[in-house]
Amino acid sequence: MIVVIGGGPAGRFAAMRLSKGGKKVCLVEKRSAGVGGQCLHQGCMTICALNDVARFIDLAGVFRNYGFIDSPGMVSYPVLIQKMQETIRIITGVLDQETKQAGVNIVQGSAEIQGSTLFIDGVKTPYEAVIVASGAHPRIPDIPGCCLSGVYTAHSILSMPNLPKKMVIIGSGVIAAEFAYIFSSFGSDVTILARSSLLRTFPMQLVKEARKDLSKVTIEEGITIAGISGDSSVTGVMLRDMDGIREITADAVLLATGMIPNIGFISGIECDSDGALIVNDRMETSVQGIYAAGDVTGTGFLTPVARHQGRKAADAILGNPFEPDLVAIPQAIKLKHDLAFCRMPGEVRKRFSIPGPAGPGTFWDVANHHTGSATIELDNEGLLTGLAEASPASSVAMAYLGWMMNSNIRIEEFERFVEVHPSPDGIPWLLKYLNGQKES
Fold first, then answer.
1. Residues near 345 by beta carbon (within 8 Å), at least 6 away in sequence
2. What percent of the chain shows pLDDT beyond 90?
3. Of 148, 115, 146, which Cα lies nearest the Cα of 130?
4. Are strands 151-153 and 136-138 parallel, antiparallel or unpaired?
């Protein structure tokens, strides 16, 4: 029997692939809400749900400024969360059924690994192989006051009873930016406190677009947090600067300070300095027969990467050839626009950018110059090395564009591409323009 620990993207895909390969598979899921992992219950899907509402409010505000729509009203946060959770339960049921129909036995319970020994709910369990796909959880920084009522993480924010009047978000990455856009659109006064700079791993063009989308948010960078203030509940965040200590008032604080792998149930397996399970090119850990995939390996914390690793671990067990590891991995963040990019490693040689065209989702932003942008990066041989786009649906296009990059498709081959019109996607325009320039 193969035991898969964790029913998120990595674990589910591994389990179904193993079952299809003729193996008897037991998937152990600790979460009482069911399979789907962090992505469904606290991450990607919750962001999608909340972002849909935030974009609706944002667009309604644009229409109101034009004078042809009345105020859309206030958000009822408790009702929003309730309805969102109802939909998540529907999705969970679909994933549960899909997994079981693939022949996987799902067991709700807790696993423990001590070296090469596996326990399920305290019972020593024999196995042919184990795949650890236990995911990750929010990193809690060593800041005084983090345990106060009113301090949340991305995993606990849905328990917040009402919209805060003033929210402080500590962090500078994707989670910080996405929640800042959501809650500022909902009407909260939001401040981001970044230890370094906002979205520092993103292309500069997308950082500029993010700042436009976060125009209602106060962003302070290069900040040192002295502590979170309050007696039993949050009243503010204390900052330390050259002039001493100052306080920003808040009735809610969101910690968006990164993720750490879930390895609290594991001992006797080699980890790196960040607590991630170390794996070889077959996704096998330092203990023979025990594999790991997804966020618990500390590689990227991206759902497509977790799925890829889950399939790769399953193929290693089945003796199948591996899918090739991706060189360029498409990524996206959802604000007013999708901000999506895909990059090859190495130095950028040439970069070209244009504003996003008018189209679905951008027409009414032409007047305020907020239609997004498209950027292409090339090497000296004309091969695509980087793409970045801000548009209402750039995350969809970027998946296919990323495939182009991983397939070493040259820009001249794009002459055969016919875009759908109308579209807010500016990359096809830019590719064809660059191709024309090359010919001339």
1. 327
2. 82
3. 115
4. unpaired
